[in-house]
Write a structure and sequence with these properties.
alpha/beta; Rossmann fold; ProC C-terminal domain-like fold; 8-stranded mixed beta sheet; 11 helices; 8 strands; about 50% helix; elongated; binds NADP nicotinamide-adenine-dinucleotide phosphate
């Protein structure tokens, strides 16, 4: 029988829970414990079958320790649980902005990985960007890739400099698409559709469009052009978007998110 993979996730907020539930769904042969000081969060996740406790065990004996607190909570966590510095297993940090060298200094760990996942991990439909400390072993590298690929698409990168861009793009990605979806949903309501129809129209347009972009393997703008019959109705809407430089505004927003990720790391 395959040995149970033991994982501790520190922080059962949005991202920690998504990782825990995604990993559990992908592989029942996993022991996952979530650590969170908040009793309501612990109850929420234990109701979904994940063991939750208030504090980290001492010593920590799991094979993986996933850090999913906010970056601002890291100092508090290390003060409260100094045994992390004695842990000799694999640490995966999903904290935005905190570099591998900063983490290595604080955590006293050589088997250190930095990942940027996103919330669809909960349905094993996520995207995760992964980078590793130079001191990690090939065996641990393989183990981490095997674990995180259970959450969806995994892209491993050598250049850690891309992690701030990954934070803006991948971590924040679902927010941008749901922001756009909320405009479509609100328009549907204003046009007279009921809530249920507005919601299913919005989600089906998103999933159908995603399927076509994937199948076509072209620049996404090509699909936009195909919908825009010359002189037709869609063109009227896209002209308004172009006139208001919506694309430029979106790229500007992502650049600001990327800069903020870099700033988070420097401000600790
Ligand atoms: N949300 C996303 O979509 C997303 C995407 C990619 C990456 N991330 C990264 O994931 C991390 C968590 O983000 P989030 O959105 O999940 O934040 P969140 O919902 O606020 O979750 C953070 C959790 O960590 C808990 N925590 C704080 N100190 C702790 C400690 N000492 N021990 C154990 N748990 C502790 C918090 O409890 P209290 O509230 O009681 O302090 C909270 O439940 C961040 O570093 C973020 O950069 C998030």
């Amino acid at each position: 029988m395959k040995a149970l993979t033991k994982i501790i996730i520190v922080g059962a907020g949005q991202m920690g829970s998504a990782i825990a539930l995604g990993l559990r769904r992908a592989d029942q042969n996993t022991s996952i414990v979530a650590i969170d000081p908040d009793a309501i969060r612990r109850t929420l996740i234990s109701n979904r079958g994940i063991t939750a406790t208030e504090t980290l065990p001492n010593p920590i004996t799991s094979e993986f320790l996933i850090l999913a607190t906010t970056p601002q909570d890291l100092s508090r966590l290390l003060k409260k649980s100094p045994q992390i510095r004695q842990y000799s297993g694999i640490i995966i940090s999903v904290l935005a902005g905190i570099s591998i060298s900063e983490l290595a200094n604080r955590l006293n760990c050589s088997q250190l990985f930095r990942a940027m996942p996103n919330l669809p991990c909960i349905e094993n439909e996520g995207v995760t960007i992964l980078t590793a400390a130079p001191s990690t072993t090939q065996n641990n590298d393989r183990k981490v890739k095997n674990l995180l690929s259970k959450l969806g698409l995994l892209i491993s990168i050598k250049d850690e400099g891309l992690m701030d861009g990954a934070t803006a793009l991948v971590g924040g990605g679902p927010a941008y698409f749901s922001f756009f979806a909320s405009a479509i949903y609100e328009y549907a309501i204003s046009a007279g559709f009921d809530k249920e129809s507005s919601s299913s129209i919005t989600t089906k347009i998103m999933s159908g469009t995603s399927t076509l972009i994937k199948l076509n393997q072209e620049h996404p703008m090509k699909l936009c052009e195909k919908v825009m019959t010359p002189g037709g109705t869609t063109q009227q809407a896209i002209e308004i978007f172009e006139k208001n430089k919506i694309k430029k505004i979106i790229i500007k927003g992502l650049k600001k998110a990327c800069a903020h990720s870099a700033k988070l790391g420097r401000s600790l």
